[in-house]
Amino acid sequence: MNWSTIFSMGTLMNTINTSTIVILAALGCLMTDQAGMMNIGIDGMMTVGAFAAVMGSWLCDSWVMGLVFALASGLLFGLFYGVFVIRFRSDEFIIGVALNIFAVALTTFILRSIPGQTGSFHPQTGRVVKLPSLHLGVLGGTNINVSIMIPIAWALVIIAWIFLYKTPEGFWLHASGEHPESLRSMGRSPEKMKYIASVICGLMCSLSGAYLSLGYLSTFTENMSASRGYVAVACVIFGRSNPPLVFLATLLFGFIDAAGQRMQGIVDPTLTATFPYIGTILMMVLLALRQAGRRRRAARA
Amino acid sequence: MKRRERMEYLLSLLVSVLLAFLLGGIIMAATGHSPLDGYGALFTGAFGNQRAIGNTLYKSFQLCMTGLATAVASQGGIFNVGGEGQMYLGALASCWLGAVLSGHSPFLVIPLCLLAAIIAGALYALIPALLKIKLHISEVITTILMNSIAIYFCTYMANGPLKTSEKGVSQGTASLDKVFQFSKLIKGSNLTESVFLIAIISVLVWYLMSRTTTGYRMKLTGQNQRFAVFAGLNASTLGILGMLISGAMCGMLGMFECFGLQTRFKPDFSNEFYFDGMLVAMIMRYRPLGTILMSFFFGILKIGAITMQSKTGISSELILIVQSIIIFFMAAEEGILQNLRRRRAARMAQTVITKGGGEG
């Protein structure tokens, strides 16, 4: 096995690219988690965002409109989730799972309603404009091109951290999940904070979807999120809803994914495709074991 | 009170289904199709001829199996989203064993293959169950990720180590002997002898869930684990039991699919069959009898949708949209009813105040 192909510039770029998909969705998920709702539906929100982005980019021949379409879909689905979970007090897992199935069915249905399109979107007229990327020069013989969504995602990690831990609004958001009644006694509505969290979640997931379909790839394929939303949920649990820690978890996931892709010459690609999923489950098991060990030590003390 | 609650629930279900179909019709109209033509094609597609009826019946039995698999795990408090993976492993294990034992008596081979499917499915369901109970890791995430792992793994096996050497077969394991395969009950349709096995299994699972103490204890555990533990029940064993049965059922269904319709394990034998049944169980709130009855309704829709797609060009995904809309409504039902009741109470209070409580 040639280790230098695994630890190379290409792997690093792949790691960053894949982790960006996950961190954007994870930032949304951790907002709802902080507000006391575990949003399993982010996978579906990503799918819808990816679809809306491609449609916007194709219809208006501009990536800006792609982003606008995606964000609009994110706003809509964030509100949708909020209305069901907060107002109607539905089971968040049932709504989440149903939302994922609904999102795949809806996008596939609309895609197939466009004449001649099945499987993936490949227009006969017009084009899908990708998100622009920044050229950072040449390193080791490879051109280093970075999609603009990558620095945006990194900035959002910092903004999310500042918002959650350094502003009163972030504190209220956290309180709406942990101690809703104390927040109410302060004269603030926990429901309002929860709505804000689910709308932010929808917006972030739609950005993740837009990056997936307009940055990482340049088309929409049916069921294109490929359970990455669930990986994002796992990263949120692993990073205990703290943006920088969650970011590290997504980088780890991205590395496993990239290393798997690099090993395709040695191991069958259908097998390497399982690595990120196995890696994610192992990450969760390790974290749970550590927590169980800590609890046991605490009990003994 | 109990009776009234059930009536209220059935009424909500009816309203949700009608509303979802209305929305489905609106979607059809919005994409430039006539809803009447669409639903008409759907109905003839499900009942038009003998073959269609056979397909509809088979689909209903399949939904019944996967729906009950979801329901039995949920009754024990674990949400099994991973049936698809368990089905793949059960199918691969049984087809592999069936091909290895080629030439032996079917009376020996079929029970052994069934056992292999049960073990493969149940063991794969045991992993997330143990992770949930021992380490409190959310089963929704582990099971859905394990679906992808199982599907990729089985695809790899069927295209790699276990690939058949027969000429002209692009992918899949070695073919099963003709005597091992389930024969068709209606020629040309998907209705195979496996439906008798599915019927027996469904009755057994229904009996376990609603007529035995074990089923009742599972229900207590699923509803309120802390209470179940205080009541002296072993909550973890009951949760694991539900998942084992669920995984075994999925594994068996994988075998029925391949032994009945495919002649071998093929990586594309399922088109997310498990999720269709899971949605049925979710709509019926994991009640076994309701899930069985609702399976027939959705069997009609699923098979009819295929004809609808070929005749009118409306994608069959529409049925999945309708199904998920019903779930949204049913999940919100209690909240909506509460809001309505509160509003009615407020209005009544208002009238009482304005009229001075005369008739109160």
Describe the structure in your own words.
The complex is a heterodimer of chains A (about 300) and B (about 350). In chain A, about 75% of the residues lie in helices and about 5% in strands. With about 300 residues, chain A is mostly helical. Chain A has a two-stranded antiparallel sheet. In chain A, a hairpin with a 2-residue loop joins strand 1 (about 135-140) and strand 2. Chain B has about 350 residues and is mostly helical. Chain B has a single domain, classed as ABC transporter involved in vitamin B12 uptake, BtuC (Orthogonal Bundle). Chain B has helices at about 1-30, 35-45, 50-75, 85-100, 105-135, 140-160, 195-210, 215-225, 225-230, 235-260, 275-285, 290-310, 315-355. In chain B, helix 7 packs across helix 8 (about 215-225). At the A-B interface, helix 5, helix 10 and helix 13 of A face helix 6, helix 11 and helix 13 of B.
Describe the SSE topology.
The complex is a heterodimer of chains A (301) and B (360).
Chain A: H1 3-6, H2 9-34, H3 42-60, H4 63-87, H5 92-113, E1 133-139, E2 142-147, H6 149-166, H7 168-178, H8 180-185, H9 190-216, H10 228-238, H11 243-262, H12 269-272, H13 275-300
Antiparallel strand pairs in A: 1-2
Helix pairs in contact in A: 2-6, 2-9, 2-10, 2-11, 3-4, 3-5, 3-9, 3-10, 4-9, 6-7, 7-9, 10-11, 10-13, 11-13
Chain B: H1 2-30, H2 35-47, H3 50-75, H4 83-100, H5 106-135, H6 139-159, H7 194-211, H8 213-223, H9 225-230, H10 235-262, H11 273-283, H12 288-312, H13 317-354
Helix pairs in contact in B: 1-2, 1-13, 2-3, 2-12, 3-7, 3-10, 3-11, 3-12, 4-5, 4-6, 4-10, 5-10, 7-8, 8-10, 11-12, 11-13
